[in-house]
Every structure is written in C-alpha cells, then in structure tokens.
Write a structure and sequence with these properties.
mainly alpha; 2 domains; flat
Length: 65
C-alpha cells in the first residue's frame, strides 16, 4: 500500500504514460477525494469513451489497414 501511495504522490503512472504515449491521447482524471460526484463523473467519462470505442470498432474505425 505504501508503494501505491508513493507512486500516486510522485505521479509515477502519469509520468510513465507521458513517456510512452502521444500527449494528445493522455487524459488525466482528477480524484482528489472531493466526494462521490468526482468519482461518478470519472466513471461516466470512462463509460462514454468505452462506448465510443465500441461504436467505432463496429463501424470498422479500428481495423488494421
């Protein structure tokens, strides 16, 4: 647990993501413990992204060329 907390404080996941992927595809979601509304908004956004990805897949947008 201490390792996870340290990684969160040091933004390890965010830093590694920025080093590994194009900046325009990285989205940092806030979750500062400001209550359930923040978490619910993050869940809603992720669900929307998943649904958009699924619809794009069905339309052939992610097929290899």
């Amino acid at each position: 647990m201490e390792e996870n907390i340290t990684a969160e404080i040091m933004q390890t996941c965010l830093t590694e993501s920025r080093e590994s992927y194009a900046e325009e595809i990285i989205v940092e979601l806030q979750s500062d413990g400001e209550g359930d509304a923040e978490v619910e908004e993050n869940v809603r956004r992720i669900a929307e992204w998943c649904e958009k990805w699924r619809q794009d897949r069905l339309a052939g947008a992610h097929d290899e060329q």
